[in-house]
Amino acid sequence: MHPQGTSATRRTRLRNALAVALLLLGVAPPVLSQSHDIAPYLSDIRATYDLPALAAAVVQDGTVIAAAAVGTRVYGGTTPVTLQDRFHLGSNAKSMTATLAGMMVEEGQLRWTSTVGEVLGDDIPGMSDTLSAATLEQLLSHSSGIPTDDEPMLEIYFNDNAFDENPKDLRLRGIDAWKDHELKVPEGSPFQYSNFGYMIVGAMIEKVSGQPWETLIFDRIFDPLGLKTAGLGPQATFGRIDAAIGHRIGTDGAVVAMLWGPAADMPPILGPAGNVHMSVLDYASWAGWNAGQGRRGPALVTPETLHVIQSVHVQTPVRLNPPPGTPGTGAYGFGWGVVDFDWADTPLLTHNGSNAMNLARLVIDPAQDLAVVVLTNFPGRTADTAVGEVMQHLFQTYSRH
């Protein structure tokens, strides 16, 4: 089954979406304290910016000290969202793919300096020299020379064969289709936000592990952290409106709820770049684990490896009016931005994510073991402004500084 609409229309939609950035032992999810009621504040913001739903949580020392989900699952609808409603994370899943890569490094199956050619050369012969030489750390930090999504990449992601094979095979086929391109590192900063690069990382992880990325993210991240609502693809169960449904805004300004099926998310080939969904509480669990710098169970990777993932690897150029869901400035680690906000005392870990139907943002201060996550089921700059306002307000409210 293929998505509806012409190829040109689908490519246009995907171009808009992907410019958006497309952010041990089992352990119980963080305890939710009822002492901080942020629902009235979120309700005011949701109404001010005319969003269908808005959810946020604050995690301090591994405990969720404030959380709420307000609004409705569908714009203009009546079914309210709950704390268990699934929201889409978009590119905020890149840090999860980076963590899987860190596991492969710790297990000796990959090195940060492993090249695409070393890992995938037998499966994809004839790669350009520059593509073959791109390293895992360059791909994870968007500094390999692979550009931001362009027309040839969109043809790979979203074409009439995009749903005819398993995602693992589609990723190899996609890299093979692009293998003749020479990578070009721009002058100044080498940073170029690249979903394609994370797709390649996914293929490298799959090659050395022998398992699909989709299986690994459940077995190695979702299950150990106890993220019961976590899943892949559109948030809602097919045929049910049982989650915070994403929305598109048409050229005429009309709001359309995107319920299920291929049109409700990016193609599966892009899983490693960002097609994860989960509840705000489960997302708080992930954020809290990262805020704890890997010193709080479960031991997904060692604190030393997590430090590498969260550290600056490239400086990002200033981008005026970046699309919602993509970084504007600062620095970048592996799946994490490192940004010096004017409302925080020190640079913070952060990321934005959007599939052009939803928006997710988070900010983490490991020094305070503090994290804030904010989610909405609406796209665009207005939603980005609202989510950013909530993120700043909650961080400043609960920061110890």
UniProtKB/TrEMBL annotation:
Species name: Pseudooceanicola spongiae
Domain of life, source organism: Bacteria
Record keywords: Hydrolase
UniProt-listed PANTHER family: BETA-LACTAMASE-RELATED DOMAIN-CONTAINING PROTEIN, D-ALANYL-D-ALANINE-CARBOXYPEPTIDASE/ENDOPEPTIDASE AMPH
Name of protein: Serine hydrolase
GO molecular function: hydrolase activity
Domain Beta-lactamase-related per the UniProt entry, residue ranges: 43-384
InterPro entries per the UniProt record, alphabetical: AmpC-like, Beta-lactam-related, Beta-lactam/transpept-like
